[in-house]
Amino acid sequence: SAIRATAARAFATKFVAPPMTYIAGEEMSWYTMKIICEKWVDPFVDTSKWEYFDLSCKSRDQTDDKVLHDAVASGKRLGAIFKEPTITPTTEQVKEFGLKKPFGSPNGAMRRGWNGITISRDTIHIPGIKLGFENPVFFERHAVGGEYGASWKGVGKGKVLTTFWPENEKEKPTIVDGRVLHDDESAVVVYDNPLDNVEDLARIFFDRCLEAKIVPYVVTKKTVFKWQEGFWQKMKKVFDAEYKDAYLKAGLLDKTGGELVHLISDAATMQIIRWTGGGFGMACHNYDGDMLTDEVAQVHRSPGFITSNLVGKNEDGSLIKEFEASHGTVADLWHMHLRGEETSMNPLGMVVALLGAMDHAAALNPATQAEVTKFTVSVREAVYEAFRTGKGTRDLTGPQGLTTEQFVDWVADNLAK
Ligand code: NAD
Fold first, then answer.
1. 346 C-alpha vs ligand 1 centroid, how far in Å?
2. What are 303-316's pLDDT values in tens digits?
3. What are phi and psi of 396, to 5 degrees?
4. Where are the extended beta strands (E) located within 144-191?
5. Domains in the chain, start-ordered, CATH in brackets?
6. Probe ligand 1: pick from 92, 99, 329, 342, max atoms within 8 Å of CB?
7. Which whole number is the average pLDDT over 277-305?
8. How is residue 368 annotated by DSSP?
9. CA-CA distance, 155 to 185, in Å (whole number)?
10. How does strand 45-46 pair with strand 15-16?
11. Are 4 and 359 in contact (CB under 8 A)?
């Protein structure tokens, strides 16, 4: 490869990494990041400005969830966050860990606290290795609204009336819906879809696609779900007013008739399987984004090769970015590790997230940006080189691949050369 992993030669002394929020989680993903930080980061980087939060169930329990509040406040202040996977305890785990209560998923608190706009999910590509898609696929999943915030009740025969009461009490209430239920059993569901931040999502998406030379699509089911028209209209308005000319100049609308194209979500589901050349991006509602990005992950071999970054916005307009892997805590390998058996955890998704957070922290706070970039490029390259030379983890390389610890050591040795 053209770029060698030369962290040691590049850094005779440690450089000070700009402040960022580091959220630690649990189980195998926690253990793997612990040894990665010890062997890849600590020898080269002074991380004393990182703010560290332990979001394990035990720590949330001991602090009555103050640690989650503090982590959200830190992320809002610093604007760059790395998060390891965390456990949202099941009823059994509440008993097993002896927790005071079933702590909820921290993600909702983070999306609210950081004014979440979008969850950006992109395919990760290792130069020289063919995964699923040849070129990058970008996703923008609206971070708010839809089914996730729904209220519901199981009810019997009767009538349902949904009324909107304007904040301004001088305005009259409006009836949103009135219906008669004939079944003995029905689920009545209410949710809303906030639209104010769709323009922000549009700019994040169209900037990213333009820079990476990717053809953008907007995906909804607005033909049948008429209420989804607003999302498309807002996306198109921003595109036509602010981006169309640049996209035309870049030749990115050649295949779409010179216009931004809308895809119905069921058609998008099929195209994801057919368009294995990649080079496309899709922006969509919250639930569609959840489903479609899992499909992308399957075509691209594994969720380990997909990024997951939450983008929010501070009051001053600056972007808050949280970087994480899309997988969980990898509990099964953790139990093998505890039994003293060999494991082979692929850390790529988490490492790409950590390096992304460091790069974003440096963009916000550029005093040591040159050193940060040199470091993140070196580490990324060393990890790619491991996979390229057959020294990958077993999910990609097969049974002759390295164990979790051997992989971390191989990259550490390469960085130290
Ligand atoms: P998981 O993603 O941890 O694991 C699913 C399967 O894929 C397992 O067999 C695992 O061994 C394998 N796998 C996943 N990532 C891998 C990697 N990088 N290298 C090698 N193998 C890998 O999902 P799960 O088992 O359903 O969940 C475990 C825990 O993670 C649960 O407690 C869940 O609540 C939590 N979780 C957290 C997040 C998050 O914090 N973002 C997301 C999903 C799940």
1. 11
2. 889 999 999 999 99
3. -105, -40
4. 151-155, 158-164, 174-181, 186-190
5. 13-115+314-417 (3.40.718.10), 130-143+194-305 (3.40.718.10), 151-190 (no CATH)
6. 329
7. 95
8. G
9. 6
10. parallel
11. no
Q: Please state the atom number of ligand 1 nearest to the C-alpha of residue 394.
A: 20
Q: Which atom of ligand 1 is nearest to the CA of 324?
A: 41
For ligand 1, the distance from its centroid to the CA atom of residue 147, given in whole angstroms, is: 23
Cβ–ligand 1 contact at 290 (below 6 Å): no
Q: What residue's CA is closest to ligand 1, atom 43? A: 328
- DSSP-assigned letter for residue 25: -
Residue keyed to tokens 């904040």: 167
Q: Is the CB of 327 under 6 A from ligand 1?
A: yes
362 is written with which tokens?
A: 């440096």
Check pocket membership of 87 for ligand 1, CB cut-off 6 A. yes
Asked whether 342 and 377 are in contact (CB, 8 A), the reply is: no
Determine contact, residues 327/303, Cβ cutoff 8 Å.
Answer: yes
Q: How far, in Å, CA of 196 to CA of 231, rounded?
A: 10
Give the distance (Å) from ligand 1 centre to CA of residue 138.
22
Residue 77: is its pLDDT beyond 80? Answer: yes
The total number of residues shown for the chain amounts to: 417
Rounded to 10 degrees, the C-alpha dihedral 266/269/270/274 comes to 150
pLDDT of residue 303: 85
Taking CA atoms, 36 is separated from 2, 354, 389, in Å, by: 24, 11, 20
* pLDDT, tens digit, 9 for 90 and up, residues 22-71: 999 999 999 999 999 999 999 999 999 999 999 999 999 999 999 999 99
CA atoms within 13 Å, Cβ hemisphere of 284 = 25
- Given CA atoms 290, 292, 293, 295 in this order, what sign does their dihedral have? positive
Ligand 1 within 6 A of 401 CB? Answer: no
What is the rounded CA–CA span in Å between residue 19 and residue 13?
19
